[in-house]
Design a protein that fits this description.
Layout (H helix, E strand, L loop, with lengths): L26 H7 L2 H13 L14 H11 L4 H8 L3 H9 L7 H11 L16
Helix pairs in contact: 3-5, 4-5
């Protein structure tokens, strides 16, 4: 009995793809495009429909614990979180490990807004509304 084998081709260069290649691109094209292609799509998907995740903090608002908890619950990598916040990956790592901290209230409010977390998760009180 003859079996029909589908020949897959790379959409960028039309090279024949190996049956063992799970990617849609051939190796040289993937190296040219890089892994950024999939990471950008993950970040775009997060920005469009980011779930509001309630942080779980044991004792007091620890910035590193909040960021790590948020990142693991949303299945983001440190590099993805860094792109969202406008930081470097190494700075996010330092924040998560408690080696660095952010004391600027405006910056903490910005982070809370970007991550769609309540400001109380960062130990901030709500802004007073002038009556």
């Amino acid at each position: 009995m003859n079996t029909v084998v589908e020949i897959r081709r790379c959409p960028r260069c039309s090279a024949r793809l190996s049956r063992s290649n799970p990617d849609t691109l051939c190796g040289p094209c993937r190296r040219t495009v890089g892994p950024e292609d999939t990471r950008r799509s993950r970040l775009a998907e997060f920005r469009e429909s980011a779930p509001v995740v309630a942080p779980v903090v044991a004792e007091g608002p620890d910035l590193g614990a909040v960021l790590r908890n948020f990142r693991t619950r949303t299945q983001l990598k440190q590099l993805d979180l860094a792109d969202l916040l406008g930081f470097s990956q190494s700075y996010v790592s330092l924040l998560e490990r408690g080696k660095r901290t952010i004391r600027d209230i405006a910056e903490l409010r910005r982070i809370a807004a970007v991550l769609r977390l309540p400001e109380a998760a960062f130990g901030l009180l709500p802004l007073a509304v002038a009556a």
